[in-house]
Request: fold
Amino acid sequence: MWGDQFDPEGHNSSHPFVETYGDSIFVVWQNNVDGEVYRAGRHKDWTNFYWTNLSETPSALSVYPVNAGGLYTVFADNTPGEYDVYWKTYPGTPMNNISQTPSAKSIFPQSVVRFTPSYNSLYTVWQEGNTAPYEIKFRKIDVYSRGVNSLSLENLFLNTIAYFTTIPGNPEVTPHLTHRDTFFNLQFPVDAGYNYVSYEFEPDTGYTYYFATVLYAQENLTEKIMIDGQIMKEIELIANNPEIVLFEIPPQLYSDEKIEVKFEKVEGTYAIAGPVGIFRFEERPVFSGKGGVQSLKEKAFFNLAIPSVFKGKINLDFAIPFKNRVKVYVHDISGRIVFEKEFTKRIHLNDLKLRSGTYILRVENPETGKTLYHRFVKID
Reply:
């Protein structure tokens, strides 16, 4: 037996499915007594799993569960009379019909999920048919859309599972922790240091990563959040007022497959670090204004011409791969336009003043309808 038995829900059960996502472990299975699907999860360094009835279908049978991305549980259920394939995220949320075949049996699903900063896509295959020979069906569903460049802390936590997490306020040495002097369990658990608290994560390259944390202290203090020695945020905490922090981590800072996070004291008794979540996304695709994917030649030119990270002033001056005039827009992470101007032949962005953060440069050709996008990060 691997680890703890899921008791009592683990008795008289079948079809277990185990998934690892980052540093978390998830298990789903069907209970043959109540006909429900259960899901359990824990951090890989925790001792116990926490499980719950996920399907919540007392009048129907829910069977053959699988899990995707730590968040989406997919299973077959005969609520309409014949088995259909559904996905669900948490207890109390709706079941969503994937197969939509009320007159044919749909069972044995397998699913994977793709997370990007703009949407989540669920890819599912299953067996369909009432008698042999059976068919294998496939469907892709965009199960959640954040809107272009509108990643917020709320939809981040509700619709994505952190790929890496910390466990502050724990007397044991916690995952990813490289330095602290003490810890507290206040309104939020925190690790604390007389000068700094630090963590180290080991990401895979080729992905986009976002940093999120909640900070809390019982005194006013100021501290810097640094990634690989670069200041990403300076936070002024007001006593007993939680502060939420979210930003994209520049890819250049984890090209060595390490994310070194440091909370450094500026003013106050301690540097403090609340729960940290590192969220992993695949790169968002870049599309033309008419729905086609931009050419590889244009995409390569654009990505080479414009740096991905700017420190201090932003100065750009380069020819563009369009014959006609273009409109240039800069969007912040919420999608708001913070700069717009029209250019011909060359783009000149001299001493563009932006705050630290993540931005999207959008270049439109009104005559052809073609659009190019480029994401960049500004740090002070």
Observations:
- The domain at 13-146 is CATH 2.120.10.10 (Neuraminidase).
- Residues 284-305 have pLDDT under 50 and may be disordered.
- The chain has three domains: 13-146, 164-281, 296-379.
- The first strand starts at residue 13 and ends at 21.
